[in-house]
Every structure is written in C-alpha cells, then in structure tokens.
Amino acid sequence: MRTPLIAGNWKMNGSLELIDAVTEALAGAHLDSNVEVALIPPFTLLMRAGQALADSPVRLGAQTLNPNAPGAHTGETSAALLKECGVELVLTGHSERRTLYGEDDAAVLARVRAALEAGLTPLLCIGETLEEREDDRVEAVVLGQVDAVMGSLEPAQRERLVIAYEPVWAIGTGRTATPEQAQQVHAMIRARLAELSPSLAEGMRLLYGGSMKADNAAELLKQPDIDGGLIGGASLKPDDFIAICHAAG
C-alpha cells in the first residue's frame, strides 16, 4: 500500500504570517496518520517553516537546488544549505524551471543526483504543454522525461524518488485534467517504471500536479495510480489545503 503524499508548493508566494497560519492549522487538523504532508515554501521562509514544523510529522521541502558543491555561486542554494533549514525533500524539474529558466533533462538529472547524494528525497516533476498534447506527443514527452532520469540512476536510487505528473496546460490556468485523463497518464508512467522493475512500479508514489483543489481532489485521488497531489494555489489557503489532505485519507 503506497502512502499518499500531499505537498504544497507555494512557488514565489507566502509570508512569515502565512507560515504560522498554515502550520497552526495543520497542527489542529487531526490529519490521517496514513497521509504524508509536506510544505514547500520559498527559500526565505524555509528556516521559519523548519522551526515551526520541528515537532510535527509535516515534512519540509524546497523548490529547487543548485547541484554544485558549496562555493562561488552567487544567488544559488545548495543541498547542504537546505538541510540546515530542515528540508527533507526537493522539487526537481518543475515545469516552471524547465520552461522559464531553461532547465533541460541534463540539468534536472544533475539536481536529482545532488539531492540523492545529500540524503534528500527528489520529487521529480514531469509533464507536457498544451501544444505537445494537441500534437499527440504526451507519451513521447512524459516518458522521455521519466527515462532521462530513471535510466541514469542505479536501482536503489530510483526507489528514493517521488514523481509528480503536472500537465503544464492545467497549471495556473483554471483548467484541470479530468480524472480519467490524469489516470491514463499516471498508468502510463507506472507501466514504464514496471519495465525497469515491477517492485519499483508498485512502490513508486505518483502525484498529480495540475490544479488539484478542494472540490476536485477526492475524485482525482480515487484513481488507482494517483497517490497524492502537488498542490499550487490551494496550498496557500489553509482550509483548502487541509481539505485536500483529508480527501487523501
């Protein structure tokens, strides 16, 4: 049985006050102990979030990392610095990093490797744009992104990842893949993992990351190959985020 994971990606949003509000709301929410929850705020809020979550089962995540060793990389943040804040997992390959900041498959792989070497859990994001979907390239794009990372890792390393499928056309647009569309792609990803190892496919958590909200979470999470959600805007609203966490239980 795969443990559901609900991870809130705040992107370039949030405040010290919101950290306190969300962590206090989560503490009093009586969440199902079989559901794993993570908060992924901006770098500037990681230390406060780490302190607030120190005695909580909620995990702390970061939105990216620089794969280089500490040194002369002005404006960047290494895995070692993230761990100082209490970070346990880190997003790699988010669609905004790929499309807005030019991170290609090689850059994503480097970040996955750096996270693994530091003992962090890489949350690998994959997904297609609207143009790629309309061109009937979903399989080629999504599985190509899976292969670019999984094909370069050792079997034991693969087992430490979490994968989030994020249809880029459904992020911040108000559009959401239907549960059937999301399940179809998740099943396709799991089938590709099974070609590497049946046990890997069975154990790998696959999250849906395309505008999951309080009012659609339950239906998405009912799908057999959807093991949680990478939540964007709804994670900035404590009541909505908690409702999604409850839907996963």
Automatic annotation (TrEMBL):
Compartments in which it is found: Cytoplasm
Summarize where substrate binds, as residue positions.
9-11, 172, 211, 232-233
State the active site: 94 (electrophile), 166 (proton acceptor)
Q: This protein's superkingdom?
A: Bacteria
Q: In which pathway does it act?
A: Carbohydrate biosynthesis; gluconeogenesis; Carbohydrate degradation; glycolysis; D-glyceraldehyde 3-phosphate from glycerone phosphate: step 1/1; Carbohydrate metabolism; erythritol degradation
Q: What class of enzyme is it?
A: isomerase
- Provide the alphabetized UniProt keywords: Cytoplasm, Gluconeogenesis, Glycolysis, Isomerase
UniProt key word Coiled coil: no
Q: Which GO terms describe its molecular function?
A: triose-phosphate isomerase activity
Pfam families named among the record's database cross-references: TIM
Catalysed reaction per UniProt? D-glyceraldehyde 3-phosphate = dihydroxyacetone phosphate
Keyword Isomerase, does the record have it?
yes
Q: What is its EC number?
A: 5.3.1.1
Complexes and interactors:
Homodimer.
**Role played:** Involved in the gluconeogenesis. Catalyzes stereospecifically the conversion of dihydroxyacetone phosphate (DHAP) to D-glyceraldehyde-3-phosphate (G3P).
| PANTHER family cross-referenced by the UniProt entry | TRIOSEPHOSPHATE ISOMERASE (PTHR21139:SF42)
**Family listed:** Belongs to the triosephosphate isomerase family.
Mind telling me what this protein is named?
Triosephosphate isomerase
What species does this protein belong to?
Answer: Kushneria aurantia
